[in-house]
Amino acid sequence: MEFTPIPRVKICCISTVEEARLAVKYGAAAVGLVGPMPSGPGIIPDERIREIAAAVPPPVATFLLTSEVEPVRIIEHYRRTRTNTIQLVDRLAPGAHQAIRAELPGVKLVQVIHVQDEGAIAEALEAAAHVDALLLDSGNPNLAVKELGGTGRIHNWEISAAIRRQVALPIFLAGGLTPENVGQAIATVGPFGVDVCSGVRNQGKLDLGRLKRFFAAVRSE
Ligand SMILES: O=C(O)c1ccccc1N[C@@H]1O[C@H](COP(=O)(O)O)[C@@H](O)[C@H]1O
């Protein structure tokens, strides 16, 4: 018999302790806290990330989203914020993940892969050897002003499904998920978790109705 767990939900772009409480109340397994980025709607100051991360109860995971790429800068960012997980939203150089691990052995590492075309499959397979989970998102790190997430756009879920089939790590799916499309996304990709920012917000604020409908849609899958 095959066991297919209901996907975990990560609510991203949490901007206050109150928003974190709301996300946890309705069942979030993780909250995302967005540090300095070249673009995106969810950025908050590092001091606020630290405050929110300290307020979130175990076993809810706290993800620091960092756009830093140098291990020393990533480690400094982590030490300013003290989450239990680091979400690396940009590509790192070879050896960088190992350097972070050596310094922060208790901290989980999640690498974002921007799914633009089938090249994402090889990128995912390479990164998978060095991290605890992958997060498949929309975006374009090759633009002059990098677009590293928070786009509100979906991508080609068939490519994400191919990655999920080939990678033996937890896969989070992100990018333009909403209460209306998350069921189809789960059916297509079969992710371990789903991750959402704009789809549960209204004018930048967490929207209770959308949040409830998002969880209901995930649970009815
Ligand atoms: O939200 C941001 O500001 C952001 C900026 C840079 C990288 C990632 C960011 N957020 C992440 O993007 C995904 C998808 O967002 P959306 O649901 O498409 O709006 C979100 O889950 C965050 O992990």
State the main characteristics.
single chain, 221 residues, alpha/beta, TIM Barrel, 8-stranded parallel barrel, two-stranded antiparallel sheet, 8 helices, globular
Helix-strand blueprint:
Elements: E1 8-11, H1 17-25, E2 30-34, H2 46-55, E3 61-66, H3 71-81, E4 85-88, H4 96-103, E5 108-114, H5 119-128, E6 133-137, H6 157-166, E7 171-173, H7 182-189, E8 193-196, E9 201-202, E10 205-206, H8 208-219
Parallel strand pairs: 1-2, 1-8, 2-3, 3-4, 4-5, 5-6, 6-7, 7-8
Antiparallel strand pairs: 9-10
Bound molecules: the ligand O=C(O)c1ccccc1N[C@@H]1O[C@H](COP(=O)(O)O)[C@@H](O)[C@H]1O.
Order of helices and strands: EHEHEHEHEHEHEHEEEH
> How would you name the CATH homologous superfamily?
Aldolase class I
Strand order of the largest sheet: 1-2-3-4-5-6-7-8
Major β-sheet annotation: 8 strands, parallel, barrel
CATH architecture term: Alpha-Beta Barrel
Instruction: Domain count, please report it.
Output: 1
Poorly predicted regions are: none
**Spatial separation of the terminal alpha carbons:** 18 Å
Number of H/I helices: 8
- In quaternary terms, these chains amount to single chain
Shape: globular
